[in-house]
Amino acid sequence: MARLIKNRQVISNNLFTRFLNSPNSLSTHPYNISQRSLQTLAYEEIQANPNKPHTHTAFVLHGLLGSARNWRSFSRSLASSLSSSPSSEWRMVLVDLRNHGKSAEIEGLDPPHNLVNAAKDLGNLVNSKGWDWPDVVIGHSMGGKVAMQFAQSCSNKDYGENVKLPKQLWVLDSVPGEVTSDNSDGEVEKVLQTLQSLPSTVPSRKWLVNHMLELGFSKSLSEWIGTNLKKSGDQETWAFNLDGAVQMFQSYREMSYWSLLEHPPKGLEIAIVRAEKSDRWDADVVDRLERLASQEGNGSAGKVSVHVLPNSGHWVHVDNPKGLLEIVAPKLKSLS
Q1: Could you read off the pLDDT tens digit of each residue along the chain, which spans 336 residues?
Q2: Residue by residue, what is the 3-state secondary structure of the chain?
Q3: Alpha carbons 154 and 262: distance in angstroms, whole number
Q4: Residues contacting 99, CB < 8 A, separation 6+
Q5: Nearest to 170 by CA among 78, 98, 285
Q6: How much is the pTM?
Q7: What does the domain layout of the chain look like in residue ranges?
Q8: What is the architecture of the domain spanning 16-180+249-333?
Q9: CB under 8 Å to 307, separation ≥6 — which residues?
Q10: Which are the contacts of 265, defined by CB distance < 8 A and separation ≥ 6?
């Protein structure tokens, strides 16, 4: 689950954001872009220098019940940091995963709503737009597992013979193995059960926040849940497809990518970022990752690196965005 960042609409420092909306709204948006088919995901693009052709691309994937806009602030900072080199121009593609954000309104993203299909949506987006394959994929929480599935599917040529593996995969505070009741506090499950128990429309955001508080949820979580509402006549409804999101969370719990980490494809670095104060990591998982990161390769396979983000809980892009930038940016610059 990802937490909403409130951003100003004015874009400073000459940063440029393009928003792809539903097809019938393209004509009114100030940044018109070539139309996409109904089957491809909604996304936003950010570049530090919009008039300069991009040389590298990074996909940025949000977590459960989040959206692309959660990552605007961090992505702007990252694009700006990487623009110091005159020979490189990075494009950040912030994706709304299926059932989330503007992608929740798109027809054609059919079930099953699992991580395999969520990653396949990314492949379909690249193919339908005729883009080069992304150099980097950054995924937070559930998005981290979607990123790992994407890399695995690219390695298997599931998206076509011309597919190219990313050079770097960033998995931000996402445990790579199965999530069981033994290694979960059950908060996400409680939130989803609560949302499923509510009617499809509620009187107001204030009503929802108060209802969540009465059920014992924290003020910050209750307010964040409230930001996921949108107007529906005189009432409010969800800005995501709740049933589809529940199915994706179940797939997130069931899927394990330890085999990918133990045998990373040649040319790929999988960088795991563990938040220092996150409650999602047990000692056995941390030790297993450290052992994989310490292995000396012979060049025939990719590698795993592990990074600890200090002074941060699970919401890495909110709790310590500067520290996260200091971890990510140098490695992306090394690709230029």
Answers
A1: 544 333 333 333 334 333 333 333 333 333 233 334 447 899 999 999 999 999 999 999 999 999 999 999 999 999 999 987 778 899 999 999 999 999 998 988 999 999 999 999 999 999 999 999 999 999 999 999 999 999 999 999 999 999 999 999 999 999 999 987 665 557 788 999 999 999 989 999 999 999 999 999 988 888 888 988 989 899 999 989 999 999 999 999 999 999 999 999 999 999 999 999 998 899 999 999 999 999 977 778 999 999 999 999 998 998 999 999 999 999 999 997
A2: CCCCCCCCCCCCCCCEEEECCCHHHHHHCCCCCCCCCCCCCCEEEEECCCCCCCCEEEEEECCCCCCHHHHHHHHHHHHHHHCCCCCCCEEEEEECCCCCHHHHHCCCCCCCCCHHHHHHHHHHHHHHHCCCCCCEEEEECHHHHHHHHHHHHHHCCCCCCCCCCCCEEEEECCCCCCCCHHHCCCHHHHHHHHHHHCCCEECCHHHHHHHHHHCCCCHHHHHHHHCCEEEECCEEEECCCHHHHHHHHHHHHHCCCHHHHHCCCCCCEEEEEEECCCCCCCHHHHHHHHHHHHCCCCCCCCEEEEEEECCCCCCHHHHCHHHHHHHHHHHHHCCC
A3: 17
A4: 109, 113, 240, 241, 244, 245, 248
A5: 78
A6: 0.86
A7: 16-180+249-333, 182-241
A8: 3-Layer(aba) Sandwich (3.40)
A9: 271, 272, 273, 274, 327
A10: 151, 155, 165, 301, 302
Residue with tokens 């012979």: 298
Amino acid in position 214: E
Which two tokens mark 126? Answer: 């690249």
